[in-house]
Amino acid sequence: MVGDHGTQLSGGQKQRLAIARAILKNPKILLLDEATSALDAESERTVQDALVKLMSTRTIIAVAHRLTTIKTASMIAVVQQGKIIEKGTHEEMIQDPEGAYSQLVSLQEVSKKGGVEELELRENISVSHNQTDFGLPRPINLNQTKETHENKSSTENKASKKREKVSLRRLAHLNKPEIPVLLAGSLAAAVHGIVYPVQGLLMSSTIKIFFEP
């Protein structure tokens, strides 16, 4: 059950379904614009393998920011500000370390590596804090708990010191440059507040006139 207009499908499922429909139509030229943007790494690898097989029998024009999806392309064009600044295969352009394509590849590899390391670090921290090697809860370290409590209390004391009362005279002195603006705003607010009561008085006096002989 995909729901009304596919509402039960996720973004990745919709994307895979759209790619499958395009392939089943068996076009001579296949246009792909960010074909794997909503897919996870495993699904992206599966779709990419299928697209590589299709490349041998038809022309595929793909627009992509993930450079892993276009490494096997026979021709790669790097577009910057509406102009093609570099063109060639992956092997040819990667040899120039100062080229735009090489810099994009290195940047994506660094960001991907950093993301994987951060994810692994988070998993290691969560496992080391919550479980032993046998999946059992770790015993509570009383000294560590005491140190944590002391750190928390010292932090609270610092925060309470920061929340000390400030004199109104000092606040008024700090707002001294804005006094003209504050006066103009107060006057405008007063005028705006008077409009509706005055309108009510005028309407009531107008209605009263009709009942006078």
Map the helices and strands.
Elements: H1 11-24, E1 29-33, H2 41-55, E2 59-63, E3 76-80, E4 83-88, H3 90-94, H4 100-130, H5 142-162, H6 168-174, H7 179-211
Parallel strand pairs: 1-2
Antiparallel strand pairs: 3-4
Description:
The chain is mainly alpha-helical and 213 residues long. The protein has a domain at 168-211. It has seven helices and four strands, in the order H-E-H-E-E-E-H-H-H-H-H. It has helices at residues 11-24, 41-55, 90-94, 100-130, 142-162, 168-174, 179-211; strands at 29-33, 59-63, 76-80, 83-88. Strand 1, helix 2 and strand 2 (59-63) form a beta-alpha-beta unit. The longest helix has 33 residues, at 179-211.
Give the gist of this structure.
The chain is 59% helix and 10% strand.
Helix content: 55-70%
N to C succession of SSEs: HEHEEEHHHHH
Strand order of the largest sheet: 1-2
Parts with pLDDT < 50 across at least 5 consecutive residues: 125-142
Number of helices: 7
Question: Approximately what portion of the residues adopt beta-strand conformation?
Answer: 5-15%
Computed structural class: mainly alpha
The number of E-state strands comes to 4
- Choose one word for the global shape: elongated
Mean pLDDT: 76
How far apart, in Å, are the first and last alpha carbons?
Answer: 78 Å
Main β sheet profile:
2 strands, parallel
Computed CA radius of gyration, to the nearest angstrom: 34 Å
